[in-house]
Design brief:
Radius of gyration: 18 Å
Order of helices and strands: HHH
Strand content: under 5%
Mean pLDDT: 92
Structural class: mainly alpha
Oligomer: single chain
Distance between the termini: 16 Å
Number of strands: 0
Length: 76
């Protein structure tokens, strides 16, 4: 399954615009990894209303797009 829309992918493939590096590995921060069990993860996610809603929205849209992709493939 795609995580980028076919239209956007086509636009990116068709462009020859320069692409500037936005992130530099040499300037990255050394952030220690956090260990979360499932309960801690779920609690932290529920504490962030926007993250909870955006995750749910993304999953719903991904499912809709997966159905569209299946139909496109079946039509081939």
């Amino acid at each position: 399954l795609l995580t980028i829309s076919p239209d956007l992918l086509a636009q990116l493939q068709a462009t020859d615009a320069p692409l500037e590096r936005a992130l530099d590995p040499a300037k990255s921060s050394d952030i220690p990894a956090q260990q979360l069990d499932e309960a801690a993860f779920r609690f932290a996610l529920n504490e962030d209303a926007m993250a909870t809603e955006k995750l749910a929205e993304g999953i719903r849209q991904f499912a809709v797009d997966a159905v569209k992709l299946d139909k496109l493939i079946e039509a081939i």
